[in-house]
Amino acid sequence: MIRFKHLRTRLTVLYAGLFGIALMLVAVAIFTAITASARGVVRGELTASGAVYDQLWESRSAQLEQGASVLAQDFGFREAVATNDEPTVRSALENLSARQGVDGALLLGVDGYAVSAGAALDEAALDTLWTGLNGGQMSSGVLDLEGQPHQAVAAPVMAPVLIGWVVFVDRLDQAQMRRLESLSAIPLNASVLTQGTDGWRDMAGSESALVGLMDQAMRTDGNAVAGQTTRGEAMLLVRPLPSFDVDAPAMLALSYPMARALKPYEPMFWTLGAIGMVGLVLLTAGTWFLSRGLTRPISALDKAVHRLQAGEDARVEITSTDEIGRLAESFNAMAGDIRDRESRLTHMALHDLETGLPNRLWLEQQAASRPSAHVVLFGVDRFEVVRNAIGFEAMGQLVAALGARLSAAAGAPAARVGAGVMGLILEIDGDEAIATASRLCAVADEPIRLIGARIDAALTAGLAQGSQAAGGLDVVDRAGVAIDQARTVGQKAAFFDAAAYGDPGANLSLMSDLIGALETDQVWMAYQPKLDLRENAITGVEGLMRWNHPKRGFVAPDLFIGMAEETGQIRALTEWGVKRAIADQKVLAKAGHKLKVSINVSGRLLSDESFARFALNAVSRAKADLCFEITETAVIDNPEVALGIIARFAAAGIQVSIDDYGSGLSSLAYLKRIAADELKIDKAFVLSLDESAKDALLVKSTIDLAHSLGMSVTAEGVETPTALALLQGMGCDTAQGYLIARPLALPALAERLSQPALTQAA
């Protein structure tokens, strides 16, 4: 199906097509009427010509029959016939045929004897003629002589009985047909057709061009019919002629070509065709111009819709008051409403609904358009504390008031970037940026009166520049990180420090690799021996996790363990460590080394009931000798639950060690409540033990305190013989450090255990 792109083209084609169809229908009607009229005229002329030929046939037959009767009644002729005087008979026949103007004459006896003059009859023709005459049914008719139709007329010869017939034969040739055609008012074609075994034949003996209409014409009882012949459409009238041969009937065929009948109407047809074509062209042109006038405002509306769709301002000119004009007016009103609504939506998208200040998106757009400018963010210190004190609504008012003060002081609009963070763009030099940001933080020094009270607030600023680059962070995010960096170092304002920020994104991706690494040899357990100072023997080891990443190489334990705690993967990591420690402990036991294995357990897991069940079941099934090392602050978040789980560990035979004692906020209250078996002094005090009297005093007092509470003491970071000797003198129970051994893989540990306790000390 053809589709047109433009409406005016469709309208033009539609109307031109409808007019063309109407013209075709009119032309068909006119042609049909004229053809029917022409057929009626031709049919009437054919019928009249047929009647004339019937009269001519009868007149000619009567004339020939009369001449034959005169000869047949002549006494001398009859006597010659009776005496078989052939010359006399032939002479009489020749004289009579010449006078009658026929092609030949003959005498046919009742016994089949024949004398002819000018007519050559073969045996078949004589038999046919004799059969027709002897039956007494006919005296005249068509007789086929040598393949040519002839008119034969006979008169009986009586002497006194029938002794024969005088027969005249006259050829039905083209000359006779032309005479018949000349009597008609129209130039018709006349022909005598005879039917043989191979179909209808004309007077020349060849197949007739009218053969296709003969059967149809013979069923019309003498009426003319129209149809196709081998020479085109024609009208045909068939008149039966008497024939001596009943098996080969003869017909008079009068035909007239319809092309000849319609010839006089051709000028009229051409005139009507020319008028129709001119009308079609005029209609097409008129429709084209009319449709163009109709579609021009529609096209203008279409273009305006596309402009409106693209976000451009669109308005169409109203040129009329009709439906299209009203449509254009409605479109303009709709476009205006859309512009207003879009303006409101744009304002809402770029402004904070609570404070009315521009929002982060607005600030990012401004920063993108001014890459050399500094983005300065101001964070409200102790935001959650202040918000919880005054409420969310009042906090929004406080942020709006601080934003207004910043805008007034900086001479630039301030935006609300986060809940308690505001930002603005400053075109200042880098040297002046910190001083300017610090000065702007002072706008919060004067208390703000809200909800009937004076509210104190403080601001910290973070700065970043659009031209700076830092892994995956845009300039606004970098300024936000700079606020936290400034608070960390205790400053009012600070630039974003990329080195201090590092690459947290890459570190986070480690966690997705860690779970898979636990199922391979990438993560493994290293063991650092612990020396019993009283027995001078290695009696335990501390399991320390190590990770060799396939791409990043060795990953520091502080990094991936800390990230595991932050992302919630610490439980899976610790459970793997417990299973690995139990399995390695069995391997060492089979090798003859019975050692206690210590495992570090995160404080986050001390309040995890499901982890506690796992650890108790694993140790119970394996009958393992494990020690869980925890920090003294591990029980601070949820002390009751944590202390309960520690007590269950102790009841199950799992020793508990307080790790890194002295490095954090040591609490004697928690130290008293924790059911610990061991206290490990942080290496920060042990490393300088032989140089600092204060450290020695602290270590000695800690050892005495632990012994008083029933705990053994392990000193970490023992790297020199002097430190080891001092610890022995102070009564320390166990030493751990590079002097005894570095953390070792399981095969290396087995080898180290086969050596004396201090022989291979590093």
Q: Topology, please?
A:
Layout lengths: L6 H67 L1 H8 L3 H15 L3 E6 L4 E4 L5 H12 L5 E6 L2 E11 L3 E10 L2 H9 L6 E8 L2 E3 L9 H8 L6 E5 L2 E10 L8 E8 H5 L3 H44 L13 H27 L10 H10 L4 E7 L2 H8 L1 H19 L4 E4 L2 E6 L3 H12 L6 E3 L2 E3 L3 E7 L9 H15 L3 E3 L2 H4 L2 H15 L4 E10 L4 E13 L3 E3 L1 H11 L2 H21 L5 E5 L8 H14 L3 E6 L7 H13 L3 E7 L6 H6 L4 E4 L1 H4 L6 H16 L3 E5 L4 H10 L3 E3 L9 H8 L9
Parallel strand pairs: 16-17, 19-21, 21-22, 22-23, 23-24, 24-25, 25-26
Antiparallel strand pairs: 1-2, 1-5, 3-4, 4-5, 6-7, 6-10, 8-9, 9-10, 11-13, 11-16, 12-13, 14-15, 18-19, 18-26, 19-20
Whole-number radius of gyration? Answer: 66 Å
Give the strand content. Answer: 15-25%
Round the mean pLDDT to the nearest integer and report it. Answer: 82
Strand elements, count? 26
Helicity level:
40-55%
Q: What is the end-to-end distance?
A: 93 Å
- Give the structural class: alpha+beta
Q: With helices defined by DSSP (H or I, 4 residues minimum), what is the helix count?
A: 25
Q: State the low-pLDDT regions, or none.
A: none
Silhouette: elongated
Could you describe the largest sheet, including whether it forms a barrel? Answer: 8 strands, mixed, barrel
For the largest beta sheet, what order do the strands appear in spatially? 18-19-21-22-23-24-25-26
Describe, in plain words, how this protein is organized in 3D.
Helix 1 packs across helix 3, helix 8 (266-309) runs parallel beside helix 9 (323-349) and helix 16 (504-518) crosses helix 17. The longest helix is centred in the first third of the chain and has 67 residues, at 7-73. The protein is 50% helix and 21% strand. The protein is built from 25 helices and 26 strands. It is an alpha+beta fold. The mean pLDDT is 82. Strand 14 and strand 15 (453-455) form a beta hairpin.
